[in-house]
Amino acid sequence: MALNVKLDAFEGPFDLLFHLIEKNQIDIYDIPIAELTEQYIAYLYEIEEKQLDLASEFLVMASTLLCIKSQMLLPQKKDNSVQLELAASEDDDPRGELVNKLIEYKKYKDIAAVLQLKEKNQSKVFKRPPQDLSYLCNNEEFSLTGVTFADLKSCYLSILKKKNRDKRIHPVSKDPFPLIKKVREVYNILLTYKKNVYFSQLLKKTRKTKLEIIVTFLAILELEKMNKILASQERPFEDIIVEIKGGS
Amino acid sequence: MDLRKLMGAIEAILFVSGEPVGIDEIAKTLNISKEVVLNCFNIMKKDYESDSRGIMISMVGEKLLLKTKPNFFSYIEKLFKPKVSSQLSKAALETLAIIMFKQPITRTEIEDIRGVNVEKALKSLQEKKLICEKGRLQSPGRPILFITTDECLDYFGLESIDEVNFYRDK
Amino acid sequence: MDLRKLMGAIEAILFVSGEPVGIDEIAKTLNISKEVVLNCFNIMKKDYESDSRGIMISMVGEKLLLKTKPNFFSYIEKLFKPKVSSQLSKAALETLAIIMFKQPITRTEIEDIRGVNVEKALKSLQEKKLICEKGRLQSPGRPILFITTDECLDYFGLESIDEVNFYRDK
Prior knowledge:
The complex is a heterotrimer, with one copy of chain A and two copies of chain B. By secondary structure, chain A is mostly helical. Chain A is 56% helix and 4% strand. The model of chain A is unreliable at 1-5 (pLDDT under 50). By secondary structure, chain B is an alpha+beta fold. In chain B, the strands form two sheets. A three-stranded antiparallel sheet of chain B has the order 1-3-2. A three-stranded antiparallel sheet of chain B has the order 4-6-5.
């Protein structure tokens, strides 16, 4: 038995079985299971000796073959009626399931061969690059009629989503409110007011996000630490009064 | 408009597009029925057979497109040195064959037929846009269902999936 | 190779190339003289005159190219204009969305997010005064930074850019 074919050449246990079946010119509907099993396992041994990674699927098939082989060696359950026995022996052939699977697999193996041929033919034909048709429309000819801010936002989110899916990485969004920027901003506000300012006033300009509120608070702590302002509170949970140092 | 002019219009449209154009779109544009488009297609197909033509018309799915004839491949290769896309692996081809005829199908069902893990093959087919996900099976685990794309027919130059059966039975 | 086959080869070559192809290049590829190429060209020109042909061959300088016949322009416009226009609108909308939420932003950054060239989209958005240039990034090449205009904010009913940030984080 010449077994000098590499396992890589086979697409799986079914493929290997087919190779053996074809090589030995076996009738697929009457597989000599003992012989086939022996050859199959001998094949796996050889592969193992070459220390190739043996895919578990090949081992599963080996055990299936052994199982069928042992089932065939066992005496069949005898029925009273001879007719029944005959009918049953057809249906209960332990090889039945394997044969069906092999035939099913063979069907797609053949289709794959047709596809491969078609693919090869197609590699020799060429399409034409689509013509640039942008001249059909003027550049300004796009319409935002009916587009709302919500549409714009969902458009943005879907682009981000698509990008993440394509690249499978998460974008690291830059900090929208860098503390140092906020510190300057708060200090400038205090400079312009030149008097006591409530913390809530610092937030009043527009609706703020939670993050911005926190950053504004951190800016106050930072300015306090820098000895630029004085912050006080009459009672816990009262609004914080911020006063610029050296101001009037 | 007579048939000959319609054929001219179809050729012009397909030439501009490069990509396959739906028969329904052509019919609508030319204000004719899909049957008339098909009629033109059949005559054009014959006309293009002439040796003096370097291109041919073909149908993929419900779309038409123009392509070069394969026998001029060597000249095109010589002049343009086109990047020939890598061929699909045997594993990918077998997996695709199963999806073509059993779609929509889950990964487990494919693995059951092929007897091996098909994760890699599925991934490469998806990357090449030959298959796509199409919902989930309403069963435990709700596994993803796979189908072939329109591009798949185009990739193999098939009019329809049935065409493969035709060749297989030969 | 007889003249008819040479004509087929020339058609195939010109079809694949989107651009005009030099007569000398064709001659070299087909292993024939420039005179024979010109001979083919003259016969082809006649052949293409048939009503059933939608394309024609023409010579520009020392080059040949295929193009659609002008009398089919109306169909091409009818079929492709809506597509081009919707592509354009989509590109403009996506580009504007990115600028809105990521401003100030450079063209390269936008292209990185959208994955395609945005030059045209930026131009048309600028023409519509929805975006404008706002300084340059202090990095190699000093790329231009784009922001949305007040008119743009106004169009979407926004009072200030802070409002955009407010919605973005929600």
